[in-house]
Amino acid sequence: MLFNSINFAIFLPIVFLLYWFVFNNNYKSQNILLLVSSYFFYACWDYRFLFLLVFSTLLDYFTGLKMFEAKNVKLKKFWFWLSIGINLGFLGFFKYYNFFITSFTEAIANLGLHIDIWTLKVILPVGISFYTFHGLSYVIDIYYDRIKPEKNFIDYSVFVSFFPLLVAGPIERATHLLPQIQRERKFNYQTAVDGLRQILWGLFKKIVIADNCAEYANLIFNDSANQSGSTLILGALFFTFQIYCDFSGYSDIALGVARLFGIDLLKNFAFPYFSRDIAEFWRRWHISLSTWFRDYLYIPLGGSKGGTWMKVRNTFIIFLVSGFWHGANWTFVIWGLLNAIYFLPLLLLKTNRTNIGTVAEGNFFPTFKEFTSMAITFTLTMLAWIFFRANSVTHALTYLSDIFKPSLFSKPSYFPISIFILLLFFILIEWMGREQQYALAKLGFNWPKQLRLSFYYLLIVLILVFMGKEQEFIYFQF
Fold first, then answer.
1. Phi-psi category of 112—alpha, beta or left, where left has phi over 0 and alpha has psi -120 to 50?
2. 247 class by beta-carbon count within 10 Å (0-12 exposed, 13-18 middle, 19+ buried)
3. How many angstroms separate the first and last alpha carbons of the chain?
4. Which end of the chain, N or C, is more open, meaning fewer C-beta atoms within 10 Å of its C-beta?
């Protein structure tokens, strides 16, 4: 069930009305409704994999209790590693089995040997990377005595499978979400309106910007060998906006929907394309995943406390693992490696925390230095996205080399004026709202009421005009 589908437009109001007008007596009945609704939401994708979600939930729930009750460290470690092993085992099998088998056979073939190894038609369960990481963080936090295990199975199950975040995040923490699930929630009109406003902006980003950019990005990437350098630049540019608006659009909708139910989810994007260096970009892009790797991998490896070699090693590990998390293809690993290389000079020069605040804070126009820094960071990011989008490493390298041919200065094959106008409109709105939680959080509050309402109606009309075939969100495949 896609957020941008008629089915979800029917599903959401029904759950909302039941939640606030039928099950509003206490939070426990509301949690039962949320759990049933979340399982139904997930079953609409593929009911066969609902058992995997339930199994993962049961595994981590009982593991948490067993670790807490363990009478010695050895037994506690046993339950901890059992949960980690099974969780990563399932994730590795469904996501990486064929990748490892194929890579192994290709490596053997390069040595002149031929081995017939059967590969399986493994279907990747939607959202497995996200709900697995929910459970892993919960188990790790209990193991290190940061939290106590949750005894109420319903509450814990809602934490793992809350439908707005179930299939593409944000990756929540028990310390943040569980307390909200375990307390009374009162309907707040202003909070609900704010949620609807964020949903509106998320739908605009997905349907109007991402899906239209995807059309041209696909045309160019799928026929890149026959395109001019200028057209290839446009293809990379379209994909750069596609992936941001697709993923951050999902996150906006998820956060807005959760707010309708009186729950705040972790912020996942903070206007990353306005970053002044790569370090700032990664503090603003997919924040829940970046902080997850920081807290559960980077810091345990030693973080930045050791010498220069340890800092460099840990940084490369984080970026490579982050790349590999995104998919079973060497292109994602190279994408992670490129970002590590981008980050390295900042780390060595100790300037990776120079740009902490919002660019041009309090001003409409950035300084020349800020604008230049943003342009360079955006360009580096766009070039790295080519590996993310390409079918193979060879395809990405060829795509990059073809950009810098004499045809770079020729007229591109595609130049959709309407898409560029929409992109400029989108960038302007994002820039105006960059100091807020999301672009429309406070935008237009000082405008005359009729002008503000007209702006919202314009967004709705654009969504309806550009709404075509329902397109899945990119991050469903991860």
1. left
2. buried
3. 17
4. N
